[in-house]
Design goal:
The protein has 13 helices and 6 strands. With 393 residues, it is an alpha/beta fold. The chain has a single domain, classed as Rossmann fold (3-Layer(aba) Sandwich), CATH 3.40.50.1110. The chain has a 6-stranded mixed sheet with strand order 2-1-3-4-5-6. The longest helix has 24 residues. It is globular. Keywords: Hydrolase, Signal. InterPro entries: GDSL, GDSL_Est/Lipase, SGNH_hydro_sf, SGNH_plant_lipase-like.
Length: 393
């Protein structure tokens, strides 16, 4: 909390600004949270014209927007160009901390709702006061469901710690808005969780084990450990007020350029073992979310099937307007440029809009745009409803 008080403006000034905003919202029929059954086009907007809908984002490098930049010892950062080369900015091209050339799925979903400002990374010095009224991003490259996942990166933020940070955000929001308004805001907010890939790629399947214990477990027991831990974490979010949650399953991690490049002598095919583990994790994940939907009153958990849509894109990339879905746009070595991650000295593919993968691990903005569109308005790869329908509940 000491950092919080150092970063905030004086209490009197901040409360005056927020009071004016809240009174303006109340008088115009607009609140901090949207009322149930409101169409997106009719959602209340704040003074900047943004939809008054908060987004709280948890996860790994697929959705990290710069938290790891504030971890001085972290080896999992995207602080260098060409990362962020296509991210729209006022002051030229500057890496944002995103592991991509441009926007990621949470960014795209925020834009689809009608907001212009993305939730800031929690560790940013500016992520306080009015800056957090639209939500916060807690995601961290290298983070996992298990606390010991990602040790190879030295510093990263696990799911448990991300939730603890969210609880600190709640304390700050209660100071800013009061308990009632904070509760309304959180109840209508969208929570997205993209977590689990590192528990396999940088733990169970890692050539440099993070810990001996999970490695010695057979796959069913390791997956059971992950699911049990993840369920307690999602329940903890619910206990803190989350009611609208999007849970992204494990993608087809065997088809990322890194795993393909490890298939020496096999022409860069997908790793069957990695995909099998991801698929075996996703089955009990879906069952767990179905159970939480039945047991947790007032909650809606969406199952976003990144695995299936990624496989479809990889196998039918031309149908999506792409020219390549197996090679890193920015990477080096291996059959799919998947061994060395994106660095400033590496050559970048000429047309990034035609590549599904940006680097050995992460999709490009073009890839994210395809997936986000399916999650937002589609019905093949997300259930029991899509993101638009979740927002309008």
């Amino acid at each position: 909390m000491e950092m919080f008080y150092q970063q905030m403006e004086s209490k009197g000034k901040m409360f005056t600004v927020l009071t004016i905003l809240l009174l303006t919202s109340r008088n115009s029929g607009c609140g901090i949270g949207a009322s149930a059954g409101t169409r997106i086009a009719d959602l209340p907007r704040n003074a900047d014209g943004d939809v008054a809908l908060a987004n709280f984002i948890f996860g790994d490098s697929l959705v990290d927007v710069g938290n790891n930049n504030y971890l001085p010892l972290s080896l999992a950062t995207a602080k260098n160009l060409p990362n962020g080369i296509d991210f729209p900015q006022r002051n030229g091209r500057t890496p944002t901390g995103r592991f991509s050339n441009g926007r990621t799925i949470p960014d795209i979903l925020v834009l689809k709702v009608g907001s212009k400002h993305f939730p800031p990374p929690y560790l940013s010095p500016t992520a306080h006061g009015s800056a957090i009224l639209g939500g916060v991003n807690y995601a961290s490259g290298g983070g996992g469901i298990l606390n010991n996942t990602g040790r190879i990166f030295v510093q990263r933020i696990s799911m448990d710690v991300q939730i603890s940070y969210f609880e600190r955000t709640l304390e700050e929001l209660r100071e800013l808005l009061g308990p009632t308004k904070t509760s309304e805001m959180v109840t209508s907010a969208i929570f997205s969780v993209t977590m689990g890939s590192n528990d396999f790629l940088d733990n169970y399947l890692s050539p440099v084990p993070d810990t001996l214990d999970p490695i010695l477990l057979p796959p069913p027991e390791f997956i059971r450990l992950l699911i049990t831990t993840f369920e307690s974490q999602l329940t903890r979010l619910y206990d803190n007020g989350a009611r609208k949650l999007i849970i992204v399953n494990l993608p087809a991690i065997g088809c990322i350029p890194y795993q393909r490049s490890l298939q020496v002598g096999r022409h860069g095919i997908c790793s069957a073992r990695a995909n099998k583990l991801a698929s075996e994790f996703n089955v009990p994940l879906k069952e767990m979310l179905d159970r939480l939907n039945r047991q947790l009153t007032g909650a809606t958990f969406l199952y976003a099937d990144a695995y299936s849509i990624m496989l479809d894109i990889v196998n039918n990339y031309e149908n999506y307007g792409l020219e390549n879905a197996d090679t890193a746009c920015c990477g080096a070595f291996g059959s799919k440029r998947g061994i060395i991650p994106c660095r400033s000295f590496l050559e970048v593919c000429k047309d990034r809009s035609k590549f599904f993968f940006w680097d050995p691990y992460h999709p490009s903005e073009a890839g994210y745009q395809i997936i986000a569109a399916e999650f937002f308005d589609g019905n093949r790869y997300i259930s029991p409803m899509n993101v638009r329908q979740l927002i309008e509940l």
